[in-house]
Every structure is written in structure tokens, then in C-alpha cells.
Specification:
Largest sheet: 2 strands, antiparallel
Number of strands: 14
Subcellular location: Cell outer membrane
Shape: globular
Strand content: 5-15%
Structural class: mainly alpha
Pfam families: SusD-like_3, SusD_RagB
Family: Belongs to the SusD family.
Protein name: RagB/SusD family nutrient uptake outer membrane protein
Keywords: Cell outer membrane, Membrane, Signal
Number of helices: 20
Length: 573
């Protein structure tokens, strides 16, 4: 006790003799500040790489908010949105937080403008690092603004078709975020400007041979060029990816809910065709485009324009989606509406006149149906899946939040060789994020070319009919494709292209945005099908959609509008 008192006295004495300046001096917390980052290559590149966050992959499962599927989880955001809860305070489809990535990219652009970072002691190599990374930042800034535009463009309370604010500088946390929305077309042009600026700086692709180097880099030493733009950077954004993104943006801008503009359709068709001609046009349609997700080979990327890293063994997606009898949660249930969209194997729509049998509904159908959807009686995930009488926990509505609501489970995007064992162990497989596939680019071309001049309009040696013919032949439809041959008008080809897009890009996050840009109602009731042991029974209203009429244009987050009065809300919200 005496020793304790002695130590307290000593410490009190030492505290008294420490100067007040020392006491009040902040402790160095070893945090990096922007002054350091602006001169440190690794830290600066880290800011750039942050701009790759929030890129949208194929695993959003927003189809649960469309006519293609329901989600069996009662608290799922997309389900709640579709059932009527969508508003300016609750919007699971919002992408307003992409502006955080925009701000980091603007900070990176400010840093490299200072010119103080030494990526390499070699002057040529250093210059190329500056060129390429500036191009990446501009491309990603355009992309994140595109995401915001896709989610929040619309007719404002003023009656004007508006885009989103376009942010081109870093704003501190206490800075002025009260930035008005540009018009829709002005936003499109601003994104295009960033994309074009990026194209002037980026290599068309990474890992090019010496004879294929872009003109900008032709006068640099190739060995140094390969250090900066070699195959090590294959998954970074490239000139090829930016051109594809331009086509995607132009198609959106041209669509009926937005500008309904022939000039943008022509731009989309031209940009897409130029990229497609680089792979041989329709002959370059990848053979694995239907089932690309079943196996991942880094040496067979023919279907990929842009993807993420191939991950390690995992089973998380399958755990969410597999039927309950094979230990999954059965989360996404494709709709009868979606199943009905698959034609007969003859290529004609699935109607009785074309050979469809309501009591044998999956016979002689488009092979993609069995590829994408777990049908009653299928073997999948290590078990036989019955969704009708005798199906036990897989039976329709057997177990709340696990069993199917429609009579179907999902196959698309899932690895069928994953196993979720009864003892809790798993056999995982490799997956990766997909950001852009060549099949989407072919469908962009087909839609735009048809709008420009009809089914047989030739643009750079291809037509919409050529593309749709190749896609349907790859799918396994009977040849010759007599149904396609019967299509002669722009209007009929438009419907066929939209349906092919629905099937080919199903469950990859496109349908929700497509319905909105086409101006098609979001309120189609969801149907299902139940096998009662002897016959199939239609379930016409498994889930009724409840979107307001103005949901073609989604809301700006309410707190943003309240904080920043210059940001105009979309009409109705």
C-alpha cells in the first residue's frame, strides 16, 4: 500500500512538470493524409482502385422486382419494393451511393494532376502510368454516373426530362453538394465526354503484342509499354470495355422512356458493331454464351468483355438459391411468366397451335428453359426436385421462406457441381463477377440496328436478323428457323429481340431496367404452376405487383432532396 501511494505521488509530480504545450499536442495516430498520398504511388493507386468498388455484377437478383421471379424471403428489399413499399425513403434499387466512388475518382484525378507521383524512375514508363491511370479514372467516373443515371433519371416535378448531377471535382465533407441535376441529354453527353477522354488514353486491351499497340503508345519502348499495359492488368477497364459501355449508354438514351432518338440508336449500333467486327461479327458469338457460368477457365474468355477475378472455392450463391431438399434456401423462384417466354424448340411461341401441351408443358421447348430453370422432376444439386404433390419440402409453399412460391427454382448462374451436404460440409466451386458479356453487346446491336432500319438493316456487315439467328441457333432451336424467317416488320422484330434479351440475359440484373426504359408496365401479376399428381394447374396470381404509375422513373433519395434544394425530385415521389 505504501509503495502504491509512492508511485501515485511520483506520477503526479511528473504530470505537473510536463509542459502545457505537450499535454495539448495531438497524438500522432499514424494516419495517412492526402499530402502523403499525393506523392506515394501505392497509396494513390489505392484511391483509384476504390473507384472499382460498386461496379454492378450479375448477382443482384433484382429480377424479384420484375415479372421474371419472386423472392421467397419476406424481408427481401426487392420483394417489398414490388409489393408497394417503394418510395423516396425506401428504394433498394437506388444507386445514389455511387457518388462516393465518383468523389474518390475525382480525388485521384486531382492527385495525378499535381504530377508529383513517381510510378517509375524511368521517364517513359512513368508517363505511360500517368496516361493509363488517368484513363481508368475518367472511364470509371463516367460509369458511376451512368449507374446513377440509370437508377434516377426521370421527368422532374418541373416536367423536364432530367438526368443527375455531374460531379467533376472532389468535394470535402463540409463542401457544397447542392448541385442541380443536368438535363437527361446533358448528362448523357457528360458521360460520353468522360468515356471519349478515357478512350484517348487507354490501351484497347491489355497484353497486346507489339504490332497491335494503339497509336498513342506506338512510339514508346515496347518492353516498357508491356510493364504498364501488359496482361497483369487484364481485369482493369480498357478501351474495349469503354466502347462497349458507350453502346450500352447510347441504347438507354435512345429508348422510348428517354429520348426515343434515332441518332442514339445509330450510335449504339455503330459502336457495338465496330467491337463485334473485331471478333468476326456473328461468327464470333461464343459457343459457351448460354452456360458460361458452369465452369471458369481463364484461358477461355471468349464470352467476356469485362469480368472480375476468378475466386476460390465457394458455395454462398448456391446456398441461397438451391432448393431446400439439397440444403438451399430456394430464394429466387422464376415465374410462369418467364417460363412462358421460352418458345417451342421449333422456334415458334409456346402456344397450343404450335404444339404446346399444357399437361406436358416442358416437352419440345427451347433448350434454354431446362438450362436456366429447375423444373418439376429435375435432378439438380445432388437430388431430384419435385415441386408438386409428393415433393415434401420442395413442394410449392411447403415451408415459408424456403419452398418455391411459383413451382420453379433457379438454375441460371449457379454451379450445379456445388454440394451442400446434410452434415453441413460443402463442396464449393469457383465463381466470378461479370460486368459485361459479348452476348449483351450482340443484343444491343440487334435492338439498335432494328430501330435504325428494320430487321435487315446492314451496319458494318451485320443485321439484327443475322444476330438473332446466330443466338437462336446457338440456343439449340431447330434450323432452319422458320419463325425468324416469318418476321418482316420492325415492330415484330422488336418484340422478338426483347424476348431474346429477356431469355439470354435472364437473372443478370437487366430486366428491371429494360422494362423501365421500354416504358412497359411493372405491374404484371406473377404466375406459377402446380402439379397435383395427375395434372398441372395454373396459379395466375402468386404475387401481385403494386408499383405506382410513375415508377418508370425512380425517386431521388428523399434525404438528398431535403438537404440540397437544388436537386429536383422526380414527379410523383
Amino acid at each position: 500500500m505504501k509503495n502504491l501511494i509512492k508511485y501515485i505521488v511520483i506520477m503526479s509530480f511528473l504530470t505537473v512538470i510536463v509542459s502545457c504545450d505537450t499535454i495539448l499536442e495531438p497524438i500522432d495516430e499514424n494516419r495517412l493524409d492526402f499530402e502523403f498520398i499525393s506523392t506515394d504511388p501505392a497509396s494513390a493507386e489505392g484511391i483509384l482502385l476504390n473507384g472499382y468498388s460498386r461496379t454492378v455484377d450479375q448477382f443482384t437478383f433484382i429480377e424479384a422486382a420484375t415479372d421474371d421471379a419472386v423472392n421467397n424471403q419476406l424481408n427481401n428489399g426487392f420483394k417489398r419494393m414490388a409489393l408497394g413499399e417503394l418510395n423516396a425513403q425506401f428504394n433498394p434499387a437506388s444507386r445514389w451511393n455511387n457518388y462516393e466512388s465518383v468523389l474518390w475518382l475525382n480525388k485521384f484525378l486531382e492527385i495525378i494532376e499535381l504530377g508529383e507521383i513517381v510510378w517509375s524512375p524511368d521517364e517513359e514508363t512513368n508517363e505511360m502510368f500517368y496516361l493509363r491511370m488517368e484513363g481508368e479514372a475518367l472511364a470509371l467516373r463516367g460509369l458511376h454516373h451512368f449507374y446513377a443515371l440509370q437508377a434516377h433519371a426521370g421527368v422532374g416535378t418541373s416536367g423536364q426530362l432530367l438526368g443527375v448531377p455531374y460531379i467533376t471535382e472532389f468535394i470535402e465533407s463540409d463542401g457544397n453538394f447542392n448541385t442541380p441535376r443536368l438535363s437527361f441529354e446533358a448528362t448523357v453527353q457528360a458521360i460520353m465526354a468522360d468515356f471519349d477522354a478515357a478512350l484517348a488514353l487507354l490501351p484497347t486491351d491489355y497484353g497486346l503484342s507489339e504490332g497491335d499497340v494503339d497509336p498513342l503508345y506506338a512510339n514508346f519502348d515496347f518492353n516498357k509499354y508491356d510493364v504498364v499495359n501488359g496482361s497483369l492488368y487484364n481485369l482493369r477497364i480498357s478501351g474495349k470495355i469503354v466502347k462497349a459501355l458507350k453502346a450500352r449508354l447510347a441504347l438507354m438514351a435512345a429508348s422510348p422512356s428517354f429520348l426515343n432518338d434515332q441518332g442514339y440508336y445509330n450510335m449504339a449500333a455503330t459502336d457495338a458493331s465496330e467491337l463485334l467486327m473485331d471478333i468476326g461479327g456473328v461468327s464470333g458469338l461464343a459457343s459457351n454464351g448460354v452456360d458460361y457460368y458452369k465452369s471458369y477457365d481463364e484461358n477461355n474468355d471468349d464470352e467476356m468483355i469485362w469480368r472480375g477475378t476468378i475466386g476460390g472455392l465457394s458455395s454462398g450463391i448456391e446456398s441461397r438459391m438451391f432448393p431446400p431438399s439439397v440444403n438451399g434456401n430456394g430464394e429466387i423462384n422464376p415465374s410462369q411468366n418467364f417460363v412462358d417466354a421460352f418458345p417451342m424448340q421449333s422456334g415458334f411461341p409456346a402456344t397450343v397451335d404450335n404444339g404446346f401441351d399444357p399437361q406436358n408443358p416442358y416437352a419440345n421447348r427451347d433448350p434454354r428453359l431446362a438450362e436456366f430453370v429447375v423444373l418439376n422432376g429435375d435432378t439438380f444439386g445432388g437430388g431430384i426436385i419435385n415441386t408438386g404433390v409428393g415433393g415434401k419440402i420442395d413442394r410449392l409453399d411447403s415451408i415459408p421462406e424456403f419452398s418455391t412460391k411459383t413451382g420453379y427454382y433457379l438454375k441460371k448462374l449457379l454451379r450445379p457441381d456445388v454440394r451442400l451436404n446434410d452434415d453441413g460440409s460443402t463442396v464449393g466451386q469457383r465463381h466470378y463477377d461479370v460486368y459485361f458479356r459479348y452476348t449483351e453487346l450482340f443484343l444491343i446491336f440487334a435492338e439498335a440496328a432494328n430501330e435504325v432500319g428494320g430487321p435487315d438493316q446492314q451496319i458494318n456487315g451485320m443485321s439484327a436478323r443475322d444476330v438473332i439467328a446466330a443466338i437462336r441457333e446457338r440456343a439449340g432451336l431447330e434450323q432452319p428457323d422458320n419463325y425468324l424467317a416469318s418476321i418482316t416488320s420492325t415492330e415484330d422484330m422488336r418484340e422478338l429481340i426483347r424476348n431474346e434479351r429477356r431469355l439470354e440475359l435472364s437473372f443478370e440484373g437487366h430486366r428491371f431496367w429494360d422494362l423501365r426504359r421500354w416504358g412497359i408496365s411493372l405491374n404484371e401479376s406473377i404466375g406459377g404452376l402446380f402439379f397435383d399428381g395427375s395434372s398441372y394447374i395454373d396459379l395466375p396470381s402468386v404475387e401481385n405487383r403494386n408499383y405506382p404509375s410513375f415508377a418508370t422513373y425512380m425517386p431521388i433519395p428523399n434525404d438528398e432532396v431535403l438537404k440540397f434544394p437544388e436537386i429536383e425530385q422526380n414527379a410523383g415521389w
